[in-house]
Design goal:
Elements: H1 8-24, E1 26-30, E2 40-43, H2 50-57, E3 62-67, H3 76-81, E4 84-87, H4 94-105, E5 109-111, H5 128-136, E6 140-147, E7 154-159, H6 171-187, H7 195-198
Parallel strand pairs: 1-7, 2-5, 2-6, 3-4, 3-5
Antiparallel strand pairs: 6-7
Helix pairs in contact: 1-2, 4-5, 5-6
Length: about 210
């Protein structure tokens, strides 16, 4: 799978994001041992700007899982819709799962935030990253986003070792693999967002299975 050809509009958007983000903050990438084929990327979710950071730094076209409500946002909704697979939160969404697996088989990178929300505690993760990777036969790349998006601040993105899972995973094995994945994300340097910071922001855009 060489991945879908990047359209000119996407390449232009990525270039502009690199220039824009690079002018406002310093971006440091560590351990860029990324698979040459499609993969699931699972990192802590600090800000709504994370999705734009991903577009700027990842070598492939990316899809995000997003709760359906986000698509109703007046300005961002139509923009986010081009990059996202909407998911109905609170119950098993088979249609969204199938769309995610198909995107991976088509060569996209799929972003699955471990707790499916911004400003998370990094205590309990959904099993979506492991489940989707196992079904599509692609690896999961854990990672950590550290630092601040404040003007002239620095964001460090540290990638971990890609993990692969057999399609025959039992429910218990998937739960353990998910717990191990979250543990590695924390070991890479991801930290929970302070309660006082979470209280000043609404729940984020991305969903989880």
């Amino acid at each position: 799978m060489n991945g879908p050809r990047l359209p000119l509009l996407y390449l232009a958007a990525r270039k502009l994001l690199r220039i824009y983000l690079g002018g406002l903050i310093r971006i440091r990438l560590e351990n860029e041992n990324l698979p040459e084929t499609s993969f699931v990327v699972s990192m802590n979710h600090r800000s709504a700007l994370d999705m734009f950071l991903y577009v700027a730094i990842l070598p492939r076209r990316i899809k995000f899982m997003a709760k359906k409500e986000v698509l109703r946002y007046p300005v961002l909704g139509p923009i986010i819709a081009r990059w996202c697979i909407p998911i109905a939160r609170g119950h098993y969404d088979r249609r969204a799962l199938e769309a995610c697996v198909q995107a991976l088989r088509d060569g996209y990178v799929l972003s699955v935030f471990p707790e499916g929300t911004r400003f998370a505690r990094l205590e309990v993760a959904h099993g979506g990253a492991v489940l989707l990777a196992a079904k599509a036969g692609v690896p999961v790349v854990p990672g950590a986003i550290m630092g601040s998006y404040r003007l002239f601040g620095q964001i460090t993105v540290r990638f971990g070792t890609p993990r692969t899972y057999p399609a025959t995973l039992t429910r218990e094995e998937r739960q353990q693999a998910t717990s191990d994945l979250l543990g590695e994300i924390r070991a890479l340097g991801a930290t929970p967002i302070a309660a006082r910071e979470r209280s000043h922001h609404q729940e984020g855009a991305s969903g989880g299975l």
